[in-house]
Amino acid sequence: MRWRRGSAPQAVFDLAKDNGVPVALRDIGMKADDLDLACELALQNQYPNPRPLEKAAIRQLLQDAFEGNRPAS
Fold first, then answer.
1. Residue 8 within a domain
2. Where are the beta strands (DSSP E) in the chain?
3. Whole-structure pTM value
4. What angle do helix axes 35-44 and 55-67 make, rounded to 10 degrees?
5. Are 58 and 17 in contact (CB under 8 A)?
6. Is residue 34 scored above 60 in pLDDT?
7. Which residue has better confidence, 60 or 6?
């Protein structure tokens, strides 16, 4: 098991990956064609957040999660 400094999302990602848990949305059955719909749904159901939700940022977050990319710090 490797331990790296980073953020909480990175630590959870690393823990999951190190233990063989799927870390990509595609690995749990999400289809690439559904990413735009997921983005639109997220924007429709906004919640109190210190940073405004932006379509491009949400879409990139979903793309990264779909591909199983480690969260950025």
1. no
2. none
3. 0.82
4. 140
5. no
6. yes
7. 60
DSSP code of residue 50: S
Give CA 48 to chain center in angstroms.
19
- Domain assignment present for 56: yes
Residue type, position 62, single letter: L
Cα–Cα separations (whole angstroms), residue 66 to 1, 4, 10, 46: 24, 23, 16, 21
Whether the Cβ atoms of residue 23 and residue 68 lie closer than 8 Å to each other: yes
Residue at token pair 């909480």 = 8
Confirm whether 5 is domain-assigned.
no
d(CA 34, CA 3): 33
Which element (helix H / strand E) includes 66? Answer: helix 55-67
